[in-house]
Structures are given as C-alpha cells and as structure tokens.
Amino acid sequence: MDHSIATWAILLVAAFLGGGLNAIAGGGSFFTFPALVYAGVPAVVANASGTLALLPGYFASTWGYREDLRPPATLSMGTLVAISLGGGAVGAGLLLTTPDDVFRAIVPWLLLIATLLFAVGPWLLRRFKRDSTENEANALVQGFTLAVVSVYGGYFNGGLGIVLLAAFSLLGHRDINSMQGLKNLVSSVLTAIAVSVYAFGGAILWREALVMMLAATVGGYVMARVGRRLPSSFVRAVVIITGAVMTVLFFRA
C-alpha cells in the first residue's frame, strides 16, 4: 500500500503520541487506529497493525515505571503473566474471526464501558468498602477480572490501558504509579501474544507497523518518565478525557 509523505508523517506522529499516551493513561489507539484508517487500511487490519506498532512502547513504558512495579497482593507475577498470555491469545483469535463491519460497530461501545468504569472506580470503592483482607476468593476474583480484560485487550487494543486501570481500581489498588506499572506490564505481555496471533492470521501490514514502532517506542519511554512525576488526579483526568474523546469519535466514525 503506497502512501504520500504527508500520510507517513501523520502515521509517525500518531505513533509517537499513541506510545506516550499509553504510558500515562492508555488509549494510544485513539491516535494510531484513526491514522491507519485514514491511510486506507481496513478496520480489523488497522487495529492489528496499530497494536504491533504500539508494542515496543508498552515495553518501554514498563521499563519507565520499573521502580513502581510490584505484583498485586493476591497474585504472583508468574500468575499475572500466564493469565495475560492466555487472555490475549483468545482475544486475538476472536478478532480474526470478526467481520470488518461488525468490528466497527462494537468498538465505540467497548470504549464507552471502559471509560465509565474508570470514571466511577473511586466511587464504587467507597460505596462497597471492599474488605482489605486477602483470601483465596479475592485472588480468584482478581484472576478472573484480569482474564476478561486480557481477552478484551487481545481483541481490541483501543482503550486497553483505560480498562486495565479501571480493573485495578475496582479491585482495590490505590497507588496510581503502581497501577501504571502493572498496566504497562500486562499490556506488554498480552499484546505480544496477540500480535503473534495476528501475524499468523495475516492481519498485519508490516511496513506501516514497523515504521510506526520507532516513534511509539520513543513516545512511550519519554512520557513514562514524565508521567511518574505527575499528580495522580491529573493522570486520572487525562484517562477519563481521553476515553470520552475516543468514544465520541468512534461513535461518529
């Protein structure tokens, strides 16, 4: 697929901004997915190719939050990674079997739900006053929630960070930097396996994705280092605003 210099510039800027946004809030596909669609790429292929483009940014962002990275209270890092791998593979397989028009129709609804979950997360925590005692049932709830979110992430990368932050918030995590580190780690793992499935299914435009990788990696690392110093209230506001804008744009698309 041939592109003009202007189109390539748009793809590179979108990848840089997408990698940076994923590092601090999630929702990097707000930039990469529309940019690829603008470049004439079908929706399913645009999602798969954009996901590959953002993958190095996830790894760079995880490294950027390395000082804050610690496992959830009820799950080991090994369990966290295993669940993320399994869910990401299942979600990617589902994407490859979804018709392009059906995928376009359900994307805005997925984003709407993710944004609302993150916005009301603190209120729900206060409302239900979760028991802080760690037990087997709580571990099962966290594992199941992570599995569902991983399937979502393997299916549609857009808003993945928002969904993960919402899930961690609802499960009682309160340190925003720790949540960011876990979000980036899980995103890296499930996206890596999802991209492998996409590649096997022939759903990736390699030239566009590989070029966009470079800009996304730089954006991810730079914003991860900056994001660690931002107030948690500001980061939360960025997540909610990003999710709202993404939802509106995809509903209007």
Automatic annotation (TrEMBL):
Keyword hit for Mitochondrion: no
Ranges annotated as spanning the membrane: 35-61, 73-96, 102-125, 146-173, 185-205, 210-227, 233-251
Superkingdom of origin: Bacteria
Topology relative to the membrane: Multi-pass membrane protein
Gene Ontology cellular-component annotations: plasma membrane
Compartments it resides in: Cell membrane
Alphabetized InterPro entries for the sequence: TM_pro_TauE-like, TSUP
Coiled coil stretches, renumbered: none
Protein name per Swiss-Prot or TrEMBL: Probable membrane transporter protein
The keyword Acyltransferase is assigned to this record: no
Stated family: Belongs to the 4-toluene sulfonate uptake permease (TSUP) (TC 2.A.102) family.
Keywords: Cell membrane, Membrane, Transmembrane, Transmembrane helix, Transport
Pfam families assigned to the protein according to its UniProt record, in alphabetical order: TauE (PF01925)
